[in-house]
């Protein structure tokens, strides 16, 4: 319809895994081959490597304070956004957990129960 505002394209249902980096960052340069290795191991996800200085037009609104910064998001929302240690194993574990949530390990369940039972522990944003 002429004169109607253009609608933004729909976000694909396949989640994106985006590494926001800078060419001058040594950790980013070392991480890139590992990121590409993880991308090959997760063909069901879409991966992108974005140099925020070369592509400021698309990354300028995203506040990057530490390199590398990882964004995992899709049509269902943001699943992770923030700095991540530049290790292939760390990224693989994160992606596996996001794709197939597992029941909490016994030690995690025990810690959560202890937190709920302890009024002395400072809680942020408690309902």
What report would you give on this structure?
A four-stranded mixed sheet has the order 2-1-3-4, covered by helices on one side. The protein is 35% helix and 20% strand. The chain is α+β, with helices and mostly antiparallel strands. It contains four helices and four strands, in the order βαβαββαα. The protein is globular. The protein has a domain at 16-99: Glutaredoxin (3-Layer(aba) Sandwich).
Keyphrases for this structure?
alpha+beta; Glutaredoxin; four-stranded mixed β-sheet; 4 helices; single chain; 127 residues
Write the layout of secondary structure elements.
Blueprint: E1 16-21, H1 26-41, E2 46-51, H2 56-59, E3 69-74, E4 77-83, H3 88-99, H4 106-117
Instruction: Tell me what portion of residues adopts beta-strand conformation.
Output: 15-25%
Helix content: 25-40%
Distance N to C terminus: 46 Å
Query: Helical stretch count?
Result: 4
CATH topology of the domain at 16-99: Glutaredoxin
In CATH, what is the class of the domain at 16-99?
A: Alpha Beta
- CATH level 4 superfamily of the domain at 16-99: Glutaredoxin
């Amino acid at each position: 319809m002429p004169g109607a505002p253009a609608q933004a394209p729909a976000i694909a249902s396949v989640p994106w895994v985006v590494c926001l980096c800078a060419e001058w960052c040594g950790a980013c340069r070392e991480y890139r081959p590992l990121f590409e290795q993880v991308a090959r191991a997760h063909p069901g996800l879409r991966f992108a490597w974005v140099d925020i200085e070369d592509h400021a037009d698309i990354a300028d609104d995203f506040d990057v304070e530490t390199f590398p910064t990882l964004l995992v998001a899709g049509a269902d929302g943001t699943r992770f956004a923030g700095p991540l240690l530049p290790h292939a194993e760390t990224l693989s574990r994160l992606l596996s957990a996001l794709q197939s949530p597992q029941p909490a390990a016994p030690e995690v369940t025990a810690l959560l129960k202890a937190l709920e039972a302890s009024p002395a522990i400072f809680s942020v944003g408690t309902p």
